[in-house]
Write a sequence for this structure.
């Protein structure tokens, strides 16, 4: 194998590692945001609100006609618990926790929660999930 071929092969292998580690980091950040939101919703509503996507926060405040921290404290969100699995598709993600399913979107400043308190619906419903907190 020529020196150029070895160099190209090494560069491709290195690129694969960089890409794989980038995906792992995205999944870790995604999972951390979902778990932190789930924990904060019960104990620190101000921190939970900071993790909401702007439209989700606006919809929550509008529906409940109160500031986000008061509104989120009034929503009976389940305790999420440990991460069961997560998926990332582009700038969207889903984290299934032991007690909740959380949907997120990637913004310039990181992952933000777009929906939480989500429960799967049976096949007779139009939408696959019913969420306690969601954005339009």
């Amino acid at each position: 194998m020529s020196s150029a071929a070895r160099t190209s092969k090494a560069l491709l292998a290195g690129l694969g590692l960089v890409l794989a580690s980038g995906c792992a980091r995205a999944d870790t950040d995604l999972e951390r945001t979902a778990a932190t939101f789930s924990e904060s919703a019960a104990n620190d509503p101000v921190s939970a609100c900071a993790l909401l996507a702007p439209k989700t926060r606006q919809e929550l405040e509008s529906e409940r006609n109160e500031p986000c921290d008061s509104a989120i404290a009034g929503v009976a969100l389940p305790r999420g618990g440990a991460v069961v699995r997560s998926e990332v598709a582009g700038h969207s993600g889903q984290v299934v926790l032991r007690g909740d399913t959380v949907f997120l979107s990637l913004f310039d400043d990181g992952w933000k929660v777009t929906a939480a308190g989500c429960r799967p619906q049976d096949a007779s419903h139009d939408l696959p999930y019913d969420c306690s907190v969601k954005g339009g």
